[in-house]
Amino acid sequence: MTVSEQVAPAATFAALRDQLASAAAAFAETGVAGDILTGMVDDVDRALSERLEIFPVCHHSPASGLAMVRRLREKRPQVVYLELCEDLRPLIDELSNCTLPVALQAFASRIEGFPAQWAPLSIVAPITEASAEYQAIAYALDTPGVELVLVDRSTDHVFQWAPREDENPDPATEPESGAAPDPESGLHGDAVGIEIGDLRPRFDELEQYLLHHGKVRHWSEWWDQYVEQPLAGADYDTYRQVMVMIGSLFRRLRRGSTAVDEDRERYMWTRMREHLAATGTDPDRCLYVCGAAHAASRVEQFGLESRAEFEITPRTETVWHYGLIPSSHSAIEAQFGLAGGAVSIAAATWSKALRRSKLQPFRLAGQAGTKKPAKRKPITTTPAPAAPADRLSGFLSTPPLLDPLDEAELLEWSVDIARLARRNGYLASTADAIAVFETSILLAGMRNRTRPTPYDFQDAAITCIEKDRVPGRRDVKRLCEILLGGDRIGQVGYAALPPLARDVLDRLQPLGLDLSKRTLQRALLDLRTDPHLASCSDLLWLLRRLLPSGAARPIMGSRGLGEKSIQESWDLGLGRYQRYLVELGYEGVTIEQVLEQRLRKAVNESGATAAVALAAVEDALVFLGSVRLADELGSRAVELLASERSVDDAPEVLRRIRALLDYFRSTATGLPDWCARFVTAGYAHYCTLLPTAFVADDTGPAQVTAMLGFLFGMENLALSLGCDHTQLELAVQQSHPEAPAKIALLWAARYQLGLLSLPELRHRCDDMLANPLILPTFPDYILGFVQAMDPAPTLKPFVVEILSKSFGTLPDKVLLPWLPGLITNLRNHAADLVPTLIREAARTFPPTLPALDTWTPPWSASAPSVPTTPETAAPSGPLTTMLAAHPATCIALATLLGYETIWQATSLTPKSPVSILIDRYPDAGNALAATLGSN
């Protein structure tokens, strides 16, 4: 570059600089305004004088896309430098297999060098057809001899340079007023959004000033009215100068630190100089696509002539996974704080501008909805860029051209919105369509517009059609967005999916469904008629375990320990939840591998508990059928239980270990070794913690009940494995609770151990019922006894007895005050213990109403007593013969019931309450004997 070429551009904007400086001196008291205005001109001068042509863009801007198409067809660059994370470059080649909009994603679940609370890390870069970056990508990939180079910082550096402390959210990322929530706005999840060209002022007062005087509601409408529309048909030089000027203005008025943006600019210029030096490419044949704010950069590394160095730090040890996920207009709006419908309106503006200008945009070959383009010839020559002329002076001094009213377009919109409103339940008519048409023109005139914009039309439709209520799922605002372009949702093609996602779709092919659709589809599986569908059923249950509930929802059928359905019905929406399926592909090759890794990770985390490990064992058996993995996870459960110092998860532990023991007892191999170790470790563990749990305020009755249920329910197994029963007796005797519910649990435990007889327990409860000082807390005692039915099932009749005595003897003035508390407490156990209590009451009370008049409670003093003296007459019948043949069984049963059995040598018949029961109910005994095959 010659000296004259360097000086000429600087003199180009001299007149504009002097004019702005004079205006600032005339209207501003300080020199700050003058410095900002002249600095903007200097930034434009510097950017346009750079030998490497800089193309400033705005994120998802139709004007930027149109200017990009024109410039690419004119310049035909050989190298395109694009402001995008450099490690996303391999994903660009897969865009041809997708339907836009989609988002490039980098994902890391296991992180190194970052705070642990940041995990998982995720970054998305959405791409739409109307964006300038997509036009550059399509041109570079489909034109022979053109190289596409991504020069922005890597995804690892995005988080390296991120602040490590919580800061206030950026106002630009907050949804604008008027943004409506949409169910599709969560396609990006919690990922960090990467955009090219963030052109929104970070100066709140300036933004509010622009919105007020522009007579618009939000920033997206202001940008469309005062930037997009004027620049849509502007020439290339005007477009560049205006965009750099806007970027410079917002950059200079930005509040807060700009260190990260400046480091990004240093990073990009360093990468571009490295590439040019390595390849020897002529800079005149290159194009640098970046955000308008970055084009106005003032870092010392700016430009090819700069010799300033910038040290790029190495990446961390974090392993990143890359893929494409579906995106949508609403997801982009939610990600970058745009108004609802802004991207849809931009897409409609893009399509209209293409029709008017008859431009042919660049589209990737093979992409859905495109025709295969003819092969383009390789790049041979590249014209040198012309010296920039001052176009800013004319653009800033000339009022915007007013587009003539397109009555045909506005009339079509008005008719279509009335028709669409009727389809969605509104009572819209031709009169409403006319009103929308006239109101749109009126609103545009009030806002100094000759031609109504889509935002004017939307306001008019809401005013004229929206009445007192919304009759359907969509309001008029949403209907206008659908009419003007709708919320387009992208789709990742099969070839661009990770191996896991492709494997899932291949294995579900026998269902005969098109799982790429975003609608719910019903799958019917008759596993008895078509056994080959069993593999599909297993996979669907895995998907239900790993994906959100809407991806695979069972309508009929269940899957648990030892159970499988013979018929199943599913609602499948994998197309709607494609993003989650893609992210599963970052964790493994098959879905079984992903679940296995997650189960291992869950039990080895720092906060893992025995309940978590038992849940992992259950999942390994139910979903994977892996006994080897279950043994590994079970051994970890034993270690976790022995190391726990809390009993908060005791109910969950008891529920899961009971289910697992029942399952393993039904298998041919029996109990595994880890189950035996878990029972022995749990027996010793809960015996040790029982006295403390009884008196601890932070331990509730549910936890104590679960501990007693574990100790009493698994005592026989624990004793057979070498545990000492004395340890349990000592633990109960050392417990001294003060809470009423825990006292009742302690009495139940002592009764179960034989340390407290039933008459003594009944006497204590009768004394409490007679003591007016204890009556207000008696519902808590009842709650404790109700919970004690689990560890002490023989206590069920007594619980019915104390409830009956309470309702039968207490006066209403005593009973009614604590009745609500009792009902509330019992309601918490309605699913587990109350049904047991009701069944026991049904066995105790007479079945008919007439019998209730003559019924005497068995605990009443006037009830017939059970004979306790041995009888000489022995009952006869098949059951007596069977008991005489097997005396050991009868002795064990009588001992379990708490009675002493006496056998007579002459008749070999036990003289106990058991024999009396046989006399009273001979039919039941004969039926039992017939069932057992005895005569």
Automatic annotation (TrEMBL):
Residues 160-191, 365-390 are annotated as: Disordered. InterPro entries: DUF5682. It holds the Pfam family DUF5682. Residues 379-389 have a biased composition (Low complexity). It comes from the Bacteria. This is Uncharacterized protein.
